[in-house]
Amino acid sequence: MLDYKSSSESPTPCNKPTKMSGKNTTNRKTLGRGICIITGASKGFGRALAHEVFHLLEPGSVLLLVARSGTLLQELKEEMQSFTDKQQLVVHCVATDLSTKEGVNETVKVARQEAVNEIDHVFLINNAGSLGDISGFESLTDLEKVNSYLSFNVSSPLALTAGILQVFPCRSGLRWSVVNVSSVFALQALPSWALYCTAKAARKMMFSVLAEEEPNVKVLSYSPGPLDTDMQEEIQRLTGLSYRLFPCQESAAKLMELLLDNNFASGTQVDFLEV
Amino acid sequence: METGQDLGRALCIITGASRGFGQTIARNMSRLVKPGSVLVLVARSGDDLRALQAELAESEAGRVGLVVECVVADLGQPDGLEAVVRRSQESFSEDLDHIILVNNAASLGDVSRYVKSFTNMAEVDSYLSLNVTSSLCLTASILQAFPQCPGLRRTVINITSLCALQPFRSWVLYCTGKAAREMIFRVLAEEEPDLRVLNYSPGEERSLHSSLATDPTIRKSFSDMFAQGQLLTCEESCAKLMKVLLDDNYTSGAHIDIYDL
Fold first, then answer.
1. Nearest CA to CA, how far is A145 from chain B (Å)?
2. pLDDT tens digits, residue range B110-161?
3. What CATH number is associated with residue A197?
4. How many domains are contained in chain A?
5. Distance (Å) from the C-alpha of residue B88 to the closest C-alpha of chain A?
6. Cβ–Cβ of A165/B115 closer than 8 Å?
7. Distance of alpha carbon B157 from its chain centroid, rounded?
8. Name one GO molecular function term (chain A) (predicted).
9. Do A267 and B77 touch (CB under 8 A)?
10. Cβ of A64: how many Cβ atoms within 10 Å?
11. Which residues lie below 8 Å from residue B13, measured CB to CB, with a gap of 6+?
């Protein structure tokens, strides 16, 4: 867990690698005074991200936690409360269904309400996602089932990212970071996993196009590795396979480190298991 | 059957067959399948399909026994998809030895708009439905209707693009759709080793790209030009596709690009 310091370096421009400051490790980089939006924040990797990120946000920052479960989001907010109150961080729980346009619009609306505050960093983490049917190709004959899956896993993050980009247009002095929670299976085909692989490949491409279009937006596709989440429990139950899982916290911390170091090229994919 | 000379006695389903590359594929296929073969041509435009059907009926292939069926269908609708499967099943006979499915139907999307403009989820859903979902569900349905069995070759073709591999600014829907589709067929290739899966890139994006480089203001009309098949180097590209199929030594699931051949 990184210590929070009240003074920090000024936010670095998106595309320049940050210089490390030599032997003294007293430089504590932060994510600035930001608005940070995390989807799928109620459980698993999203929840771990929330726990990592609030230490790195400066006073006046806003954290939007988005998921369907208002109860779980509220619990999460309370877990962070003593710190967030002390450090003047505002936390909003947005209990909504991102598989619907109403859910996406609601999230954008809450973000827009916060746009009045002076911020120097917009930080969007597209984490919400689902496994889909992994029983095999021939079970994928149903148009509605496939449309519904792609809508939640592809259309929704595109529309949300677009909406937030509209609320906070790029301008000098505003740092913009987008994370796409990706997977090795955005790049690698896995038998029986057509839906999951397809959506992850689609997302990887979508965010790569964004990186091409917006030089002021730093885009990272982050493959978090196999984590101890409900999704992995489901996978192991369905497949009968058992393999090592990493704690969400560890992968979330690694993602934060990558973002603070800012040494990656916008649009690339970085894998937890390889850094 | 002599390998390399023809594609056998085939049932060949081609989506987006009414114009452009799909139409060219239909004509080329008709010349490479043996008498008694069936082409099932699918598109939303009945008039264009029937004109092609008539043309093929009068062609040499038609005169020696090629059967050409038309299915006017919207593959984004369950009844459209079912109609294609049903007609294919009805057209099948035991003496056919090759099922070929060509997933060609696609749309360009608006290539003048950036990611930040796609705030409307329904618009993205609609694009993915036509370009991704329909090809996945049609393929799954056809494979279910024609399961693996001895003596029956099965080939699935996906018309892909360099845009499946490389991002291009202002082309988010097209690139995303192509990347998604290509992955579908890569997974299929991994999952079904007896199936021949060809991700063929006909090189359309280069003519798109070079035209855009000269005149960015014509982006908006590109969707129409694409739909009309005016941007594709159809004959040459299709000839190479046919050769790849006849040679039949491509790696199933791999991205085969015309410019690498």
1. 9
2. 888 999 999 999 999 999 999 999 999 999 999 999 999 999 999 999 999 9
3. 3.40.50.720
4. 1
5. 16
6. yes
7. 6
8. sepiapterin reductase (NADP+) activity
9. no
10. 22
11. B39, B40, B42, B84, B88, B100, B101, B102, B142
Q: How many residue pairs bridge chain A and chain B with CB atoms within 8 Å of each other?
A: 165
Q: Distance between CA A95 and CA A65 in Å, rounded?
A: 8
ipTM, 2 dp = 0.92
What is residue B232's predicted lDDT score, i.e. its pLDDT? 55
Contact A143 B180 (CB under 8 A): no
* pTM of the full structure: 0.91
Phi, then psi, of B67 in degrees rounded to 5: -95, 130
Query: Which positions of chain A have pLDDT values less than 50?
Result: 1-26
Give the tens place of pLDDT for each residue, B236-261: 899 999 999 999 999 999 999 988 88
Q: How far is A169 from chain B (nearest CA, A)?
A: 9
What token pair was written down for B87? 């007609």
What is the reported pLDDT for A14? 44
Does residue A222 form part of some domain?
Answer: yes
Residue ranges making up the domain that contains A99: 34-271
Domain count, chain B: 1
Q: Cβ contacts (< 8 Å) between A162 and chain B: which residues?
A: 115-119
